[in-house]
Amino acid sequence: MQSGNKQVCHKDLMINQLKAELAECRLALENEKAKSELNVEKNHLLKLYRDELSDADKTILKQEQKIVKLHEQMKSFTVDIEMNKKRSNKELFPCCGHTLCFTCVERLINKEGTIKCPFDRTPTKLQGVDIERGLPRNYAVLNMCT
């Protein structure tokens, strides 16, 4: 009987060892599964991030193309300034620095006494009672005219 008890104890010991090994295997498997799920999530987030970057790159490219187009349009946009002495003292420029003729400023002024530059849409509030005193003169252009 003693030999039978030893065998039972030995079998119980082996069963307990196998249970412990099985528990370790299960834990390792759960850890691997968790790592795998994290990798899937990480890859999903990376894809989303790459997609957002791609969309941002496309948006930037479109904006750069618009800027180039607007720049080309601005180059071709001219205002015929009368270059005679009678009108040459009327070349004015708003706060953005673009030169406008008196006639253009008259057409661009709104009820609040503000003009928007036709080149860059920068608003300028007139500082005087009339247009000529409300905007500074562009003396560089005036010197070319005389």
Can you give a write-up of this model?
By secondary structure, this protein is mainly alpha-helical. The protein has two domains: 77 residues; 58 residues, no CATH class. 64% of the residues lie in helices and 4% in strands. The protein is built from four helices and two strands. It has a two-stranded antiparallel sheet with strand order 1-2. A hairpin with a 6-residue loop joins strand 1 and strand 2. The longest helix is centred in the N-terminal third of the chain and has 75 residues.
Number of strands: 2
Report the C-alpha radius of gyration, rounded.
40 Å
Name the structural class. Answer: mainly alpha
Strand content: under 5%
Major sheet: 2 strands, antiparallel
The average pLDDT score comes to: 79
- Number of folding domains? 2
SS field, number of helical segments: 4
Biggest sheet strand order reads 1-2
Order of helices and strands: HHEEHH
Helical amount among residues, as a percent range?
55-70%
**End-to-end distance:** 130 Å
What characteristic shape results from the CA principal axes?
rod-shaped
- Quaternary organisation of the protein chains: single chain
Poorly predicted runs of 5 or more residues: 81-89
